[in-house]
Design brief:
single chain, about 300 residues, SDR family oxidoreductase, binds NADP nicotinamide-adenine-dinucleotide phosphate, about 45% helix, photosystem ii, three-stranded mixed sheet, alpha/beta, 12 strands
Length: about 300
């Protein structure tokens, strides 16, 4: 049995569909009726993917202990950042991504879970001090010292988020935001490709402990804006936020708005240095990754 925590989310939902579609027994932690319905949609094609749901919350350790019973592998993709950015009420990034995930590791250990697949992000060790970075680093550290077989997946920025309007890459409105100089090479990666990787390492016999991974194309944010502008046949205005200003804003917002502080950190990360990771972990598993340019072409033309 695989327990997916975060299975009502974008990446998590794709992982649930893949695992269940491959015939694995999947249990999905859902927080409430509405999230439960989202999982129903996952299996709602009539073919009966057979996903079991269990009510629980990362902020409720007892629910995590119950959810982990008879589980062989936990796959943890959950994060509070989407809700925080949407301004919805609820627990903080520290409470969910930090303390909540740590409770999940405890619960998994106590229940005798064998493998724990954890989705972190590439560059988490940059030491920027954002709430998300602190939470992810603490969970990675806890896993390192646990008795669980850990598989930490650190993907680069998702194309759908960071090369789309939500990531202030709004080609339709002719505006792209860049933190810093914007010339460090990223490996923007497709969410589907990371879902396929996460599903693979959840079930393959001998996965690595740590996988840093990105898409096939190393491309800076400036280059992405130029490519997008070419596909759109329109001028794209690049709005620049100097890195020192972003750093200051990040520090000031850390307590007042943990979501925005973490997003500023993600932008800063993209301005720091070229990605040192590649798409090799995807290709090694037969996943043919989509390039950032192909994503932009599909989205824009
Ligand atoms: N975006 C990027 O560029 C990027 C890059 C690298 C890594 N990542 C990582 O990839 C993952 C993204 O996953 P995603 O796309 O599926 O995120 P998402 O769409 O925002 O979904 C978040 C999931 O977390 C669940 N969740 C939130 N608070 C919870 C709580 N208190 N208890 C239990 N579950 C809770 C949500 O449940 P509800 O549906 O009930 O809200 C939902 O299932 C994250 O771990 C992120 O850090 C993202």
């Amino acid at each position: 049995m695989l327990l997916v925590v975060g299975g009502t989310g974008d990446l998590g939902g794709r992982v649930v569909r893949l695992l269940a579609g491959q015939g694995h027994q999947v249990r999905c932690l859902v927080r409430d009726e509405a999230s439960g319905l989202a999982v129903e949609t996952v299996r709602g094609d009539g073919s009966g993917l057979g996903v079991e749901t269990v009510r629980g919350d990362l902020t409720d350790p007892a629910s995590l202990r119950a959810a982990c019973q008879d589980v062989d592998t936990v796959v943890a993709t959950a994060t509070a950042i989407g809700r925080r950015l949407a301004g919805r009420p609820g627990p903080s990034i520290r409470e969910v991504d930090g303390l909540g995930m740590l409770s999940l590791v405890d619960a998994a250990e106590q229940a005798g879970v064998r493998r724990f697949v954890y989705v972190s992000y590439a560059g988490v060790d940059a030491g920027l001090g954002t709430p998300l970075e602190e939470a992810k680093a603490a969970v990675e550290d806890r896993l390192r010292h646990s008795g669980l077989q850990r598989v930490v997946v650190r993907p680069d920025a998702f194309q759908e988020i960071h090369l789309g309007p939500i990531g202030r890459f709004d080609v339709a409105n002719g505006k792209v935001s860049v933190i810093g100089r914007g010339d460090a090479k990223q490996r923007y990666v497709a969410t589907d490709d990371i879902a396929a990787l996460v599903a693979a390492v959840a079930t393959e016999p001998d996965p690595p402990e740590l996988i840093e991974v990105g898409g096939p194309e190393a491309i800076s944010r400036n280059e992405a804006a130029t490519i997008a502008s070419g596909f759109a046949h329109r001028r794209v205005k690049v709005q620049r936020l100097p890195a020192p200003v972003a750093r200051l804003a990040m520090r000031l917002l850390k307590r007042r708005n943990d979501g925005v502080a973490s997003v500023l950190g993600a932008g800063l990360l993209q301005s720091l240095h070229d990605a040192t990771w590649t798409d090799e972990p995807l290709r090694a598993r037969g996943i043919v990754p989509r390039s950032a340019s192909d994503f932009l072409r599909q989205e824009i033309t």
